[in-house]
Amino acid sequence: MLLATGRVRGSYAVVKVAHHGSRDQESALYAALHAPVAVISVGEGNDYGHPRAETLTLLESVGSRTLRTDQRGLILLGLRDDELRVWSMRSPPEGG
Length: 96
Known about the structure:
InterPro entries: Competence_DNA_uptake, RibonucZ/Hydroxyglut_hydro. The chain is α/β, with parallel strands linked by helices. The protein is built from four helices and five strands. The protein starts with a helix and ends in an 8-residue tail after the last strand.
């Protein structure tokens, strides 16, 4: 529905992934947003298997670096010298 409104214009620095990274995502929206960073707010060890592998693959395919609260705890984002900076409670996991 958001794409149909015509309000998605240009690219965005960050996207907050819907519904804890469930499989119910609109791939065309993430492709249109073209955000270099995707944040997924999800509880560690949740019973639903979020974020889903399909969603992580989708985000990777559109060029988004995924930051997950279940892996990094609190995530803070900011701009310094026109560059997006990331701070988190925990170090990223190996390869992340």
